[in-house]
Design a protein that fits this description.
- By secondary structure, the chain is mostly beta strands.
- Helix content is 12%, strand content 41%.
- The protein is built from 3 helices and 15 strands.
- The strands form 5 sheets. A 4-stranded mixed sheet has the order 6-3-9-10. A 4-stranded antiparallel sheet has the order 5-4-7-8. It has a 3-stranded antiparallel sheet with strand order 13-12-15, with no helix packed on it.
- A hairpin with a 6-residue loop joins strand 9 and strand 10 (193-200).
- Helix 1 (18-29) packs across helix 2.
Length: 260
């Protein structure tokens, strides 16, 4: 980990060289790489930096939109930054549509709400620690709202209002207790929906499997060895979507999928 506590999934793939990352980053800055590719590769860019190229979050905490470089911070600066890290909101979508994540929130001592937009197949926003009354909504790049579905039913039918219209998806949080909230979006531009919302700590990894057609029940069996001892741990999750939070201490992980 670097001087700033960063999510455990920010790592460089073994096949991706530093020279390639620099070229991708420069192309991204010049607008030559699609935002989806930039999101993936720019996140990986962190682990290749030398000590004099320390990444710094912008004032809104976005590590995918604005990056500046500077010298290593002092111990006091490091402690202050680490203390100020808030909740990470992440949008993960398929490639059927480019989507926007709209986030608004209030801050202590401010009468106005702050608003931010992140666009792409995948995007993220790091909230300030004092963010309150957070609202998150999504739309596609064509202007269509991402709407609610009944995820407990096979086929995930749309939820409709009294007039028979789809209901836009909105998430309201008085205060978010989790450190990392990840929204998984699926569907075409005029039919996008949130299939999974996962809340976890930054030290955990997420294992998830979802039925692509919403019709087949699935089972996911996870087994691993804890680094601190205690023998082999096992878990069996099932449903149209099955998920498991893997602790950071897990070793020798084995995952098996099967129809329920």
């Amino acid at each position: 980990r670097s001087w700033l506590e960063r999510p455990s999934w920010l790592h460089k793939p073994s096949w991706l060289s530093r020279k390639t990352l620099v070229a991708i980053w420069q192309s991204y800055r010049g607008g030559q790489v699609p935002s989806s590719a930039a999101s993936v590769y720019c996140a990986s860019f962190y682990s290749t930096l030398t000590e004099d190229e320390t990444p710094r979050y912008d004032e809104f905490g976005s590590f995918l939109s604005v990056m500046t470089w500077g010298p290593q911070p002092t111990a006091a600066e490091e402690a202050a930054r680490r203390h100020d890290v808030g909740v990470l909101l992440e949008m993960s979508g398929d490639h059927l549509a480019v989507r926007e994540m709209h986030v608004s929130y209030a801050r202590e001592g401010s009468a106005q709400r702050e608003q931010h937009v992140r666009t792409g197949f995948n995007a993220a926003l790091l909230l300030p620690q004092d963010a309150r009354e957070v609202e998150v909504r999504f739309c596609t790049f064509g202007g269509f709202d991402v709407c609610k579905v009944d995820s407990s039913q096979p086929g995930m039918p749309w939820l409709l209002d009294d007039a028979g219209c789809r209901v836009p998806e909105r998430f309201h949080y008085t205060e978010i207790c989790a450190e990392h909230v990840q929204y998984f979006l699926s569907g075409a531009a005029d039919a996008s929906f949130v299939s999974i919302v996962d809340e976890r700590s930054r030290s955990e990894s997420l294992l998830v499997v979802t039925s692509s057609d919403g019709a087949c029940m699935l089972e996911m069996e996870v087994s691993y060895t804890a680094a601190c001892g205690g023998g082999r741990q096992q878990s069996l999750e099932s449903g149209l979507r099955a998920a498991w939070h893997l602790p950071s201490s897990a070793r020798d992980v084995e995952v098996v999928f099967s129809p329920a």
